[in-house]
């Protein structure tokens, strides 16, 4: 339950991304700078945090042990996640991008077979948690209903360019995040892992920004300022909170799916933000049904996650009792 709450708070800060990315595009800024500047700004803040905690050396050691894997999964988790989102903001409104992003709820659940869990001395491929998957579809239906009314206001080209890149990002983000959790094996804390992934993604952002410099020139002062806000709110605060939540449930696919489902609340925060900051009209009609389904879906996910937690604790207690019983049997005199 605590992890889901952390996920919802992270979603509130993540919503800043969709609102300001759209704002920058409407002001004539390029998606190239919107994406790369965020990660350039993240580095000094994360460095200060990790250095203050005196565990920078551990990050460097971990990265040097598996440099190619750090580059690969940081590319998936950060570059292939954020570049398509900022690109999509050039062609679709914030609500469309944020709504489509919710496919990550289902995507994260479907990725389970790509990972293994240890059972004693052997490894077993993880299974798709169908209970969590079914609940996630309730949220997805709610997201579709939110977009249904506004969907007629955009052209087919805007719909495709505003949706397909985000669908790719929806699979890349949980894949990169989970693979890095698997690679680190709990040896790094959340701040260390986010810093390591940000540093590992920098070569790709330098290439993208060099392309932007040639194609569109330097970013405006307004875009730099807004990218700085996105870097703090979404890059540092939201990413760290979300990674903390997923780290705490990384060994349980059902509860992990519930935490990832908390991202669905981004749609609500984006709707509110666009109404206040970008003067978008208030939602009406079928949109409110969609909002209700998202709230219901999140409530069911919370209940489902709580039941899984209780069940898991009971299994741990039973396992310990069985171990004690076996030890007593061995030492019992005959």
TrEMBL record:
Superkingdom in the source lineage: Bacteria
Keywords: Membrane, Transmembrane, Transmembrane helix
Pfam family, any one: EmrE
Stretches that traverse the bilayer: 5-24, 30-50, 70-89, 95-116, 128-148, 154-173, 194-214, 226-245, 257-279, 285-304
InterPro entries on file: EmrE (IPR032713)
Keyword DNA-binding: no
Keyword Transmembrane helix attached: yes
Descriptive protein name: Multidrug resistance efflux transporter family protein
